[in-house]
Amino acid sequence: MFEPKTHSLVWSIEDEQNQPIQTIQIQPITMGQHRNLSKTHKADDTKLLRACIIESTSLTETLLKQLVTPDYTSVQNQVLELINTTASQLMEDEFDNAVPALLIPIQGDDGQEKTSYKLRPPTVATTDLMDTYSNEWERTIFISSSCSGFSQAELERLSLPDWNQLQERLIDFLEQPADYFRQKTSKS
Predict the structure, then answer these.
(1) Consecutive sets of 10 residues in the chain, 188 residues long: mean pLDDT of each?
(2) What is the distance between the alpha carbons of residues 152 and 156, in angstroms, rounded to a whole number?
(3) Helix (H, G, I), strand (E, B) or coil at 10
(4) Do 124 and 80 share a structural domain?
(5) What H or E segment, with its residue span, contains residue 109?
(6) In this structure, are 74 and 155 located in the same domain?
(7) Domain ranges, residue 162
């Protein structure tokens, strides 16, 4: 089970009630949150990163600005790690690429908790359909949904490490020959 990261501040800050804050909990954000923040801050990487830090830590902008630079750098590095890593890198158990476990379970559209999904490689017909979409994002959502069984809304609820894991595997499906997968699954 995933445990959020905690950063113990070297220099504490104070909340709105002048109470000291000595630790900051850092959670992964969802793909949907990241996508919305990216749209809002598309021209400014610094603002995008700070918005991601605020979402990931639940700090307000005022509290974020109270952080001293070394503490901010530590929090920033941990948030960036969660943005850029895959679920399998954060899981302690052996990872099953055919039926990947979600690092952070989501609520499915049917109201049931989803803790894993079955990943299927796309057929040629599916990749042909993918190519009919006009932009990269629509193609990504189509192929992600087709191969995982998740709806677009469910995909948006995936944590970024879970989303990154799915994308990494889909890229393998779209670019690698069959022998690549045979080597991964054979037990010699």
Answers:
(1) 89 93 96 95 92 95 96 96 92 76 95 94 96 95 96 97 96 91 59
(2) 6
(3) strand
(4) no
(5) none
(6) no
(7) 93-185
